Amino acid sequence: MTFNSFTSAPVHFLPDTPESGGAMPPASGGTAQATAGTPPTGGGTQPAPFLVGPDGQFAPDFWNNPLIPEDARIDYVKAMPDLPTALKTLAHQHKMIGIDKIAKPNERWTPEQWAEFNKAVGVPESPDKYAIAKPDKLPQGMNYDEAMEKSYREAAHKLGLRPAQAAELANWFNAQKAEAYTAEMKTFEEQQKAEAEKLAKDWGNKREVNTQRAKLAANTFLTDPQQRQIVMDAIGKDYVLSNLLAAVGSQISEDKLIGITPDTLGGAASARGELAKIMADPAYLDSRHPQHDGLVQRAFRLQQIITGEVQ
């Protein structure tokens, strides 16, 4: 039993039983002593009611006992059903002393509360503070998108991603993009190969002539060197583009090549010799060379003479 310093009556935390050393009947004869909660038969002081039972359960009127401070009678404490639960909670609270506590977010938070929470969990102050690593190696022909990275940083910051989360997600995204690009290029190359084979079959022995016609059209209408080079590379591979340019080239060839005839060239044999020299000339192979256009036009005319299209 424990004595309350504010009263003279003892307060029992467990009801008196033989096991707990409480009041027991005398070994032989005599009047039995009163047990807890039972008024004595011969008057005297009323024993205090027990607060905690043998099973650890609080007594029904536990929280009404004058020993319990008023400030301890709060809802979450009063909801504890027994002494073991209360002791475990108290031990946990002691462990948490000195540890920073972060509030659990909810939908009613203000922007200021969210900003405070993000700062507490490590979200950087601004998007540029994220450490986003660029891929060590990209597939051939694929360029790193700096604008996409900037947009990603802003989105990550807006969503409140921590640095580790943002970095891992960026790595995953870059890997997915590289994989998709590789698959797309493989499909494109397979398609180009199939179109080139179909083009070679359709053009037959006019393949070289039509190629020259297509190049003539590209050189005539495309003035931007970079665009012209892209088109030149596609001639003979892209079925639709190659046929379109060859058709256009056939319409403009006569205007571009007036004066070049078998007689002026010395016949088909001479035409073959000159054509071989032109096609070996670096200027013929370089669409940016100032002499490239003239060489392409002359090579086209030589092809016409060799195949008999020009008499």
How would you describe what is shown here?
Residues 1-13, 20-39 and 257-265 have low confidence and may be disordered. The N and C termini lie far apart (130 Å). This protein has three domains: 1-19 and 47-88, no CATH class; 127-186, no CATH class; 189-307, no CATH class. It has helices at residues 75-78, 83-95, 111-121, 146-159, 163-203, 207-221, 225-234, 239-256, 262-265, 268-280, 282-285, 292-307, and strands at 2-3, 10-11. Strand 1 and strand 2 form a beta hairpin. The chain is an all-alpha fold and 311 residues long. The chain is built from twelve helices and two strands. It has a two-stranded antiparallel sheet. Helix 6 (207-221) packs across helix 8 (239-256), helix 6 (207-221) runs antiparallel to helix 12 (292-307) and helix 10 packs antiparallel against helix 12. 16% of the residues are buried.
